[in-house]
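Notes from the pairing session

We agreed to fold both candidates in a single pass and log them together. This is the raw record for the first candidate, unedited. Please don't reformat it; downstream parsing expects exactly this layout.

Candidate A
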Amino acid sequence: MYTDKVMEHFANPSNVGELPDANGIGEVGNAKCGDIMKMYLKIEGGIIQDVRFKTFGCGAAIATSSIATELIKGKPIEDALALSNKTVVKELGGLPDAKLHCSVLAEQAVKAAVSDYYKRQGIEPSLFVIAVKDGTSHEEHICCGEGGNCS
C-alpha cells in the first residue's frame, strides 16, 4: 500500500516540532479526514533557513509533511512557492489515491506559512502566493484537496 520511502518518513520524520523563532506559520486542515498540519518557517534574506512541522493525522499526512520540509529547507522562498503536491507524491514514490489529499495539505501548509511570512513583512501575500485557498484567517487555511474534494 505505501512505499518504503513513505514508511520511512512516517516512522522517522524529518524536522518535527515547533520553531520558536518562526517568522512564518501556516496551518491547514481537512475537515473530512481530520488531518491538521502546521508548518513553521524561519526565513532570512529570502532563504528558508529552518523549517519544522507538527501534524495530527495519518501516516501519509506525516510523511508528506516530512518530505515537504526536506524539499524546501535551505531553498529560496520561490522554491517553496513552486512546491506542488505532485512533487511531494513523486518524491515519496507515490501515494494511494485515497491519500493524495495529504500531499495537497503539505503543499498548502507551506504556502500558508509563506503567506503568513509576507503578511508579517507588511507585504500583500496574494501578489506572490496564489495557490492558498483562504477561507478563514491568515493563520488558518482550510481546504479539502484539489477542487475542494475531500478524499
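Candidate B (folded immediately after A)
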Amino acid sequence: MRIATYIHDGDRFYGMADEHGAIPLSPDFPEWPTLREVVAANGLDALARAAAGRTVSHKDIMFEPPIPEPRRIICVGVNFPDRNAEYKDGSDQPKHMSLFPRFPSSFTGHDRPLIRPPESERLDYEGEVAIVIGKGGRRIPASSAHEHIAALTLCNEGTIRDWVRHAKFNVTQGKNWDSSGAIGPWIVPFADPAQLDDARLVTRVNGEVRQDDHLKNMLFPVREQIAYISTFTTLDGGDIIVTGTPTGAGARFDPPRFLQPGDVIEVEVEGIGTLRNTVRDEA
C-alpha cells in the first residue's frame, strides 16, 4: 500500500498512488485533513479499506512530501561505518549519535527539482530511508520502538556542502536551503522489522550507482534512534526521522562530484519505491 500527498488541478489530496496516478481518499475522511492526522490517528488501515476496489481517477498529479508540515524532522548523521571512516580522523564508533533538524520547507516532492542556490554550487545528494512515527511517546524503550513506527518513506537529504562548514559544531545552515532535498514519493505502512533489517539502499546519479548499502550496517539502528531521540523530546504521530546515509556522496570523490542542473538523482529501496528528482538553479 502506497499513500501519497499530491496536487491535482490545484487542489491537495492524499490517497493511494503509483507512478500513473492516484485514488483520492482525503474527501472520504474530512476528520483527517492531511496524512499527518491519519498517521497520528492510526488510520492507515481505514484508508486501505476505503481504496479497495477503486481505480485510479486522478492522473497528471504533482507529488508533495507525504507528511505536510511535520512537527519534527530529525536527521541522523554519520550513521554507517564507511561514512564514519570518510572523515579520516581515526575515530571509532561514537558513543552517541549525531543529530540535526531540517525544516519542512527544505524538502520538495517526488519528480520535482532540487533547487541549487546562487550562493553555492556545492549541492550534494544523500539517499536515506525515513521513518514516520505513528504512536508518539517519551522515553520509548528500544525493545518496543518498532511499535511506534507507522510507515517508511525515502529521502534525498540534499546538502549545501560548504555551508555545513560555516561553524564549528553546526551543520543546520547547510541542511535547510529551500527545496534542497526531497521526501517521498509516498509512505508505505510498516508491518515487519524485515522492512528495515533487510533493506538495501541504492542512490544513482544519471544512472550511475553512487551509494549502495544495507540498513543492517547502521551504527545506530532505527530502534536506538527512536529510543535516544524520545529521551529528550516527546515524539508525536507524523514526526519524521531521517535515518542516515551510506558512503558515496559527491563530496567524498576526488575531485568532488556535486550536482549540476539537469542531473537526475534516484534513491531506491525495494518494497518502498524510487524517489526521483532533477536539479535546477534557483530562478
